[in-house]
Amino acid sequence: MDNTNTAKYGVVGNPISHSKSPSIHQTFALQTKQDISYKPFLVAVGDFEQAVTDFIASGVSGVNVTVPFKEDAWNLATKLSTRALLAGAVNTLSFKDGEIFGDNTDGIGLVRDLKNNHGFDFAGKKVLLLGAGGAVRGVLGPIIQENPASLTIANRTLSKAEQLKQIFVSDFAISSCKYCDLDSSYDLIINGTSASLNNELPPIPEVVVGSSTVLYDMMYSQQTTTFNHWGQNLNAGSTIDGLGMLVEQAAEAFYIWRGVRPVTDDVFTKLRNH
Ligand code: NDP
Prior knowledge:
Helix content is 37%, strand content 21%. It has 2 domains: 127 residues, 3-Layer(aba) Sandwich (Rossmann fold); 135 residues, NAD(P)-binding Rossmann-like Domain (Rossmann fold, 3-Layer(aba) Sandwich). With 274 residues, it is α/β, with parallel strands linked by helices. The longest helix has 16 residues. It has a 6-stranded mixed beta sheet with strand order 2-1-3-5-6-4, sandwiched between helices. Strands 9-8-7-10-11-12 form a 6-stranded parallel beta sheet, sandwiched between helices. α8 links the parallel β11 and β12. 44% of the residues are buried.
């Protein structure tokens, strides 16, 4: 039950009813004994700015932002973290002292999932990213900080991969190509395309998968995703889906808001089993 001391948070998107974020944050709050409420907010496309004005007026302390409002949130923020600035998108807003502070926790969520939950060390590894949309842009900065040996972005539309490369090229010598140009195996392949949402596979040559390659699909589902199924048929080293990324990005948002870092294992197991 909310009382006047209960800090209000939520997640904004359209659609939003499918979101696992309320369940994740409520579990974090119970675990860390934080007095918060966290609700889903359905906002019509075009109404994001008004919705944020209303949140602030009604005492909401912060919101997570999901499809299709991450760029609107980036534009609306009066202050941006460095990682949000580079990501070009915001998934976590905090309302404090008259400022709208925007951050992006997706990239650190992916890196923490791979490092902490799956023991993957990026240092010295050959990394391939598939796709050049918002999700890939969001993870590039945090991956670069882990010092991989190389970073390749492959995308159906080559110009989009090249645009991403230009944003980060001063920090890291990223290469970009089309799928048909890929001709060697990688240590880690991250599927950041939305192809899995339609049970489709980007047209990647099988040569990219070796016996120790880790495949990471940013999409998650109860069944093995199309991309991970493809990797298993090729005897890839291991396949992981994006559920852990979802939980870890939420944990980072919770930390930004509450200054307490929740333990993520139990939440992950609960979601995986339901
Ligand atoms: P965008 O719409 O911004 O980008 C989509 C990308 O997918 C583009 O590069 C597009 O290529 C490519 N693509 C789409 N369909 C195909 C296809 N059939 N074959 C090859 N390439 C294709 O989406 P986002 O970047 O926002 O999201 C991408 C994925 O990441 C989604 O599945 C989303 O659910 C997931 N995600 C997961 C998160 C998590 O916490 N687990 C967090 C954020 C995202 P082109 O440029 O040529 O059109």
